């Protein structure tokens, strides 16, 4: 679906979220659900992980994403009086570094690059992890730069993190676009004046109280075709 994009200047810089937007979290989802014996365990954990990353930022603190992931994974099991072993936690976190790309992603990134856009990646994960993830998935060559919240110590959707990327790339906010599968990430980028594109992966929906993104589609290829 295309909304108001035709009224705006074509963006120059495309900023891609990583987990779920580019990379498929299914291997992690399956393992967490298996370990707790509950089809909803992964969703609860990932929501809690995002929740406490925001808590850390709001209270002026910073802990590495993997550390918060470990702590919140324990919480999700403790809530149901279930045990999770340290080696199982390390297994789950290790899977984060070996995620596959969603099938259409390489084609989409090539379309974006061919259309003349500058591509960068931005993740709440540590820079080492994000680099490992994109290398493993074969996506690193598509990106001019890879960014992490490590530098700002502020997790998305904190404005400081988006602004840092824009400043580093020397791009005005309205000429930058965030592409993400998370409504909270889309809203964060909108609040600093960026354009946005929403990838409606299965189970992902927009926040009704936020403005519509400039573009949306069921896959990155759909969005790339609209933006050619």
TrEMBL record:
Keyword Hydrolase: yes
Keywords: Hydrolase
Highest taxon in the source lineage: Bacteria
UniProt cross-references to InterPro entries, sorted A to Z: 2-HAD, HAD-like_sf, HAD-SF_hydro_IA, HAD_sf, PGP-like_dom2, S-2-haloacid_dehalogenase
Family: Belongs to the HAD-like hydrolase superfamily. S-2-haloalkanoic acid dehalogenase family.
Protein name (record): Haloacid dehalogenase type II
Provenance organism: Cyclobacterium jeungdonense
